[in-house]
Design a protein that fits this description.
The chain is α/β, with parallel strands linked by helices. 38% of the residues lie in helices and 11% in strands. Strand 5, helix 5 and strand 6 form a beta-alpha-beta unit.
Length: 498
């Protein structure tokens, strides 16, 4: 999940004097969850569809649409075993099902059924079919509130129609935007879910709840951990690019040095810099301790590998940028198969860019900025007006930057219960996450050496002890919630004269 921050930062880059108009911002939203390729044949699930109301909160629009969900019950204890319910993110639900190995790893131990629910307006769950995005009025029901209502209605239906599921306690699980939804699901529908695991969920990255520079500071710190010269080299690269790109021979040098598929023109410089920004952000997000194919095929601890090429920030501009290329090439060409680099593509993921861009222009407004001093980027202040004008131009509407705080309470959430918030110290999205426990039932688990929702990935022999411990704690909370729900259910059904 990176669009909230990155869309704005790139917008600022593109708005700088003499730079090109912004590239299609939607492509940047791949990062929001950045699911990679599934491990073939590992997961066995059934695909189902449920007729959902298009509008849960009004009575005029009474049409329905098919919401897709996936269900896996191989290890489910049909005598009231729990349901692990994944709150789908901004993309095809099969991507999340096939890449949330933690749920599959623990389903046998818990005797749990797993359900992966697709978010409306993504994947196959289109409220107006092929016309969903063609008419702005059709997007009026594209909100997190409607999506949560979908989840609640689906859960109630499953419990009513699946034999043995009536008393099954339901635990919401999600990562990134899905993690935000998991937390909000428990907050809004405590009668439906007994608890939630919100992994890498930046629920406080709205309004003025978090300093706008916090995200970029964590990205920078990830590179600083591999040596001060690494971050310094990246910071120096912006001036080097600006100087060289002012002349035709400099543009040719950049095109040749970075092996760019289409030669750079003066109007492409902003796109080129946004591509580099996105690359550094991606690397920070997916700094996993083992080889992974998440956004791109990458080596273990990719930031460390990248920083091996950036050990001297004092080099002349051309030499410095040649090293920057070597670093970038780790991200884009670890397999050695890329003949050239395409600056309009930073991920092999197939998430739905368009849908998330729409959400960032409505509810999901996450202020972001850089200062060029405490981070390794060019100074770019947060400009809500610019962002709003861009949304108006592209979608014909303006965002409501404070709406999420109004709906979900901002930092005033102490009245809620049974939510575990997990965050890794390498993950830039932890800047807007709950990293300190609020109460005995609103618990924060902080994961040293953890990148973007590392705890939701499959167990790996190279996992740091911190994430192994985090997963163990999460399972213990699940068991606690399940036991509490069982006791409560027994009390209800054994109540005299019930």
């Amino acid at each position: 999940m990176a669009a909230g921050w990155l869309l704005t930062v790139v917008a600022m880059v593109m708005a700088a004097p003499c730079l090109a108009p912004a590239p299609t911002p939607s492509r940047l939203s791949r990062l929001m969850s950045g699911r990679g390729t599934a491990e073939p044949g590992r997961f066995d699930y059934k695909t189902r569809y449920f007729q959902q109301k298009i509008d849960h909160f009004g009575f005029v629009e009474d049409d329905t649409f098919k919401q897709r969900y996936l269900i896996a019950d191989r290890y489910w204890n049909q005598d009231g075993g729990p349901i692990l319910f994944y709150t789908g993110n901004e993309g095809d639900i099969t991507l999340f099902c096939n890449n949330t190995g933690f749920m599959w790893d623990i389903s046998k131990e818990l005797g749990a059924m797993m359900v992966f629910a697709e978010h409306r307006y993504y994947g196959e769950s289109m409220p107006f079919g092929k016309k969903t995005y063609s008419n702005p009025k059709n997007l009026n029901y594209f909100t997190s509130e409607q999506a949560l209502a979908d989840f609640a209605v689906l859960v109630r239906n499953l419990k009513q129609t699946i034999p043995g599921a009536r008393n099954s306690p339901v635990i919401a699980i999600g990562g990134s935007y899905g993690g935000m939804l998991a937390a909000w699901f428990r907050m809004k529908y405590p009668n439906v879910v007994v608890g939630a695991l919100a992994a890498s969920a930046p629920i406080w990255l709205f309004g003025d709840l978090t300093p706008c520079e916090a995200f970029s500071a964590i990205v920078t710190n990830d590179f600083l951990k591999s040596g001060k010269e690494c971050a310094k080299s990246i910071r120096r690269s912006w001036d080097a690019i600006n100087d060289l790109s002012s002349k035709a021979e400099g543009l040719q040098f950049l095109s040749d040095t970075f092996h760019i598929c289409s030669p750079l023109q003066a109007s492409d410089v902003g796109i080129f810099k946004s591509w580099l920004i996105e690359t550094w952000v991606n690397l920070a997000m997916v700094d996993y301790p083992y080889e992974a194919n998440f956004l791109q095929p990458l080596p273990a601890w990719p930031v460390k590998v990248v920083c091996n090429f950036l050990k001297d920030s004092s080099l002349p501009a051309k030499s410095l940028l040649q090293n920057i290329y070597q670093a970038v090439n780790v991200y884009y060409n670890y397999t050695g198969k890329a003949a050239c680099l395409n600056i309009t593509q930073t991920s092999t993921s197939s998430l739905d860019d368009q849908g998330w861009y729409y959400q960032t222009c409505t509810e999901m407004v996450m202020p972001s900025c850089t200062d060029g001093v405490n981070d390794m980027f060019e100074p770019m202040p947060w400009d809500l007006k610019w962002f709003s004008d861009n949304c108006k131009k592209d979608w014909g509407l303006r965002p409501r930057p404070d709406w999420i705080i109004t709906v979900y309470g901002g930092k005033n959430i102490s009245s809620h219960s049974n939510i575990v918030f997990s965050n890794g110290d390498l993950d830039p999205w932890s800047s807007g996450g709950v990293t300190k426990s609020i109460s005995d039932t609103l618990v924060a688990i902080f994961i040293p050496d953890g990148a973007h929702h590392l705890d939701l990935r499959s167990s790996n022999k190279h996992d740091p002890p911190s994430v192994q411990k985090a997963r163990d704690m999460e399972v213990q909370y699940f068991k606690k919630w399940i036991e509490e729900a069982k006791i409560e259910s027994d009390d209800i059904y054994n109540f005299p004269n019930h």
